[in-house]
């Protein structure tokens, strides 16, 4: 059984709703899943998991949330080489640039991207819900 961490930050609840679907998908595929808010996760935990789903909405000028999520992610980034990960998040404007930049950053760190990232404009619709579940299954 694989061990999957779902680590997210959510301001409006949209990314949290996505995280819940990622958890369901991973559990459906037989994974042992642990869920963390960004402030509860650190680089010390990265090695405890076979795979990690990171979720963060677009903030400001399409960047990751800067107070909690970005510092946590920056600390973990050096340990992502060879780690199976997937990314998800919601946005309210723009075209998903924050996710493209984030995915590129992860690839440059040597992470193994398990599947396409999932983005939702606002609350996740049925398609985004199924994509989040698929993301969870891909990590399991």
Question: What order do the helices and strands come in, and which of them pair?
Answer:
Layout (H helix, E strand, L loop, with lengths): L2 E6 L5 H15 L3 E6 L13 E5 L13 H9 L6 E8 L5 H12 L3 E2 L4 E4 L4 H14 L1
Parallel strand pairs: 1-2, 1-3, 3-4, 4-5, 4-6
Helix pairs in contact: 1-4
Provide a descriptive summary of the structure in words:
By secondary structure, the protein is of the alpha/beta class. It has one domain: Rossmann fold (3-Layer(aba) Sandwich). The protein is 36% helix and 22% strand. It contains four helices and six strands; from the N terminus they run βαββαβαββα. Strands 1, 2, 3, 4, 5 and 6 form a six-stranded parallel sheet that branches. The protein is globular, with a radius of gyration of 13 Å.
Observed structural traits:
36% helix, 140 residues, alpha/beta, 4 helices, globular, Rossmann fold
Structural class, judged by helices and strands? Answer: alpha/beta
The CATH topology turns out to be: Rossmann fold
Question: CATH homologous superfamily?
Answer: Flavodoxin domain
The amount of beta strand, in percent, is: 15-25%
**What's the main sheet like?**
6 strands, parallel
Q: What is the CATH C-level name?
A: Alpha Beta
Radius of gyration: 13 Å
Helix content: 25-40%
Number of domains: 1
What order do the SSEs take from the amino end to the carboxyl end, as H and E?
EHEEHEHEEH
> For the terminal residues, how far apart are their CA atoms?
8 Å
Mean pLDDT over the full residue set: 97
Total number of strands: 6
Principal-axis shape: globular
Spans of at least 5 consecutive residues with low confidence: none
- Put simply, the count of helices is 4
CATH architecture type: 3-Layer(aba) Sandwich
